[in-house]
Structures are given as structure tokens and as C-alpha cells.
Write a structure and sequence with these properties.
By secondary structure, the chain is of the alpha/beta class. It has 18 helices and 15 strands. The chain starts with a strand and ends with a helix.
Length: about 425
């Protein structure tokens, strides 16, 4: 079976979708004949109209020419992959970690592909990408994709419907986003999603048959060796097992303000380490931190995005992960923590109850007292040992082998 994977996330500070993409690519590339479709144009501004603000005239011309080519091949029904095969993939060092895992002849760079998709979605223009017959069996997109692929099946993953359930948490054009979700569903032969909860949410918001949505869940592929970087502990004046950790985007849905309030209420001597890049609407969170002068008191330590090895080293050496998020599609940090043997305090939202039942300490994310009580409970060795026993069940449930089995089962639905 020939799989064309779309490379969706290429940011230096990766999101949960990027981590999902990395794990997915590793598993697919190890088990199928795999091709890679990606876009070397690194453009993450909020609106596609910002392309007109580009200062680099050559880059702007190249981008519009690429979009024209995409439409040209659509009109004349020419296979895109024959036109955009990468002759020298090493021209793109930023993506080398991905590219060197794929056969050189199986890599295709369509410059401006994502922007063209956003423009056609915004203007409601029809567009299809043509593939030669028997060239590709399945196009697998780890996130939203509104293109209609001819001569191949298309699978997209929808991770959550948070923009529509909690619109105050995002900064986005909801009408455009709704249209993008809708077109993704309409142009896909199958939708993968990461939890039964998210499947139910998709059915609530969109007109789609239940059998078109297949739940794969997720997995975590730990690094083979997490290098012992004690210097990062020394840098932030941390000691092994004497700090709690939160990591993720600094944004309202992560409930960081209530997390800090609950932590401060305990008077626990352990420090709180917050690791993450700035997300949507982060100003209110940083204003709260600055108003309490928390950084100077050195009980709460905030660092930005860090490299993968250091993140997992910090997680592995923490006392517990504190993750009382208000909304998630899956909550991959929780699974990562469990794989590394770290106890978790998490919110009692529906999706976490579905995925991590009895393997974590659950809290009411809106209750400061509930959060602080759970942090105090982390001192109970009997309860921690019980949680670690349950965590082993979770690790088996979301193992790499089971995830691959789910992916294959989904692919087989299209045969």
C-alpha cells in the first residue's frame, strides 16, 4: 500500500499536532511504502492576506507562481507529484530531520500549497489535486486539508472542535474555520480522530455520518535515550523529584492561572516549572504572573520552548505533571508523562475520563481547592504507587503496536 503523508507542521516551536505528526510519520514510514508531501514556504501568520505584506519580492513572486501552477495542473488534470518531485532534498535543511527518513525519490515539495488551500477555502473556489492512477493509494493528512485528491483515497485527522466549543479561547475567524472543517470532512473518504469524545463533538457540530469517523487514539514514541542534562536543572535551580511540571502552550484553555493559584494554596516546598511557548491570548496569564511577582520569588519558574531531549529530561525528573486543562482533544502531555513513569494531576473533563480513567488524580479545573487538594495528595506514597500501577495499563492501551493496528484497520476500511 502506497501512502502519501502530508507534512502539516514545520514550526520551530511545535504544537501537539506536530508531535502527533512525528509519531505518525515514524510508524507509517516503518510499515508502508511512504511518500512525503510538504510545503517549504514557512508562513504562519494568522491570515493568508498577510502574504501581501511580505518584504521579499522574489519570495512573493515565487509564491504566486506556485499557486498559479497548482491551479494550472488542476485545470489540465496533470499529476502534481510528477511536477514537484524534489531533485535535491538537501536544499531544505530546516526539514532535514523529516527528509532524511524518507527515500529521496518519494519527496515532493509544493511551495505555497497550504496558502493556496487557505485562499481557495476563503474564496470558496473548487480545486482538486490530480494523481496518476496507481501512483498513490491513500493520502494521509495529519490535520485539516480541503483539497480533493483524484485517483487516491484521502484521510484527514481532526484533533478537536475546541474553536466551536470554546470560541473565547481562540483568536480565529470562526466562519472561515468552520468552512475549513466542513470542506475537510466533505473531501475526505475517512476522518481519523483521537478520542471517542472528539468523535462525538464532530458529530455534534457537523453533518457527517458516524461511520465516516474512525477513532485511532494516539501513542507516544519515547526517545531511545533521554540524555542526562543536569545542567538544565542547575540553570533553573531545580532538584530531581522536587518540582512539579506543566508544559504546553501558554494560553487560556490550559488553565494556568487556576493551576498557579491551586499550587500556591498548598504551601508545598516543591517548585512549579512551567514550560511552553506563547499561545493565543497569553497576555492575561503573564499579567497575572507579573502582578504576583512570582518569578522573583522563585517558586514558579517559567521557561519558553525547549528542545525535545531537555523537555523529556525535565518531565522524567519531576515529581508530577500538573495539567488541569479546560479543553483537549487528547492531551498528549498526559500520555507522555505516563510513558515516562510520572504521576499526573489532570482535569475531570470528559475526554480525560475516557482516556486516563483511574490512572491519574482528577480535579475540578474551576476549583482552586480541588487542585490544591490533589497536589497535597501527591505526598501519599500509597496512592502514587496505585496510580503507577494503573499507568502501566494505559501504556499498553496506547502502545505503538496498538496504534499501528488502528491505523491499518482504518486503511482497510477504504479497500
Amino acid at each position: 500500500m502506497k501512502i502519501l503523508l502530508e507534512h502539516t507542521e514545520n514550526r520551530e516551536q511545535p504544537t501537539g499536532i506536530a508531535v502527533h505528526q512525528k509519531n505518525l510519520f515514524k510508524i507509517i514510514n516503518d510499515n508502508f511504502e511512504t511518500h512525503l508531501l510538504y510545503d517549504n514556504f514557512d508562513f504562519h501568520n494568522k491570515s493568508c492576506v498577510n502574504i501581501f505584506k511580505l518584504n521579499d519580492f522574489k519570495k512573493k513572486i515565487k509564491l504566486f507562481y506556485s499557486i498559479f501552477r497548482i491551479y494550472f495542473y488542476f485545470i489540465f488534470k496533470i499529476s502534481l507529484l510528477r511536477q514537484f518531485k524534489v531533485n535535491n532534498c538537501y536544499n531544505f535543511p530546516k526539514f532535514q530531520n523529516y527528509l532524511n527518513k524518507f527515500k529521496k525519490d518519494n519527496i515532493y515539495n509544493i511551495y505555497g500549497l497550504k496558502l493556496a488551500m487557505n485562499i481557495t477555502t476563503l474564496l470558496n473556489l473548487p480545486i482538486s489535486l490530480y494523481l496518476d492512477k496507481n501512483e498513490i493509494d491513500i493520502v494521509h493528512c495529519p490535520f485539516l486539508n480541503t483539497y480533493n485528491f483524484k485517483n487516491a483515497y484521502k484521510i484527514c485527522t481532526i484533533h478537536d472542535t475546541i474553536p466551536f466549543d470554546f470560541p473565547d479561547f481562540v483568536v480565529a475567524d470562526l466562519k472561515f474555520l468552520k468552512n475549513k472543517y466542513t470542506k475537510t470532512i466533505e473531501t475526505s473518504d475517512l476522518i481519523f480522530t483521537v478520542s471517542q469524545t472528539t468523535k462525538n463533538d464532530i458529530l455534534k457540530h457537523f453533518n457527517v455520518l458516524p461511520e465516516k469517523i474512525f477513532v485511532t487514539y494516539q501513542t507516544f514514541i519515547p526517545p531511545k535515550n533521554i540524555l542526562n542534562n543536569t545542567s538544565i536543572l542547575q540553570k533553573y535551580n531545580l532538584e530531581k523529584g522536587k518540582y512539579f511540571i506543566f508544559y504546553g502552550a501558554i494560553e487560556p484553555k490550559k488553565n494556568i492561572i487556576n493551576l498557579i493559584k491551586g499550587y500556591l494554596k498548598t504551601n508545598n516546598k516543591k517548585k512549579l516549572l512551567i514550560v511552553g511557548s506563547k499561545g493565543w491570548k497569553n497576555k492575561i496569564i503573564f499579567d497575572f504572573i507579573d502582578d504576583l511577582n512570582l518569578r522573583d520569588k522563585k517558586r514558579v519558574i517559567i521557561i519558553g520552548h525547549t528542545v525535545e531531549n531537555d523537555l523529556y529530561f525535565l518531565l522524567q525528573n519531576s515529581n508530577a505533571l500538573l495539567f488541569p486543562s479546560l479543553a483537549e482533544g487528547f492531551g498528549l502531555p498526559v500520555l507522555e508523562a505516563m510513558f515516562l513513569g510520572v504521576p499526573c494531576v489532570i482535569s475531570n473533563i470528559v475526554v480525560f475520563k475516557e482516556l486516563y480513567n483511574e490512572a491519574a488524580l482528577f480535579v475540578d479545573p474551576y476549583s482552586i481547592t480541588s487542585i490544591s487538594n490533589a497536589i497535597d495528595t501527591l505526598e501519599n506514597e500509597f496512592i502514587i504507587n496505585k496510580l503507577k500501577s494503573k499507568m502501566k495499563i494505559i501504556i499498553k492501551k496506547y502502545s505503538r503496536e496498538r496504534y499501528l493496528s488502528k491505523i491499518k484497520e482504518g486503511y482497510d476500511l477504504l479497500r
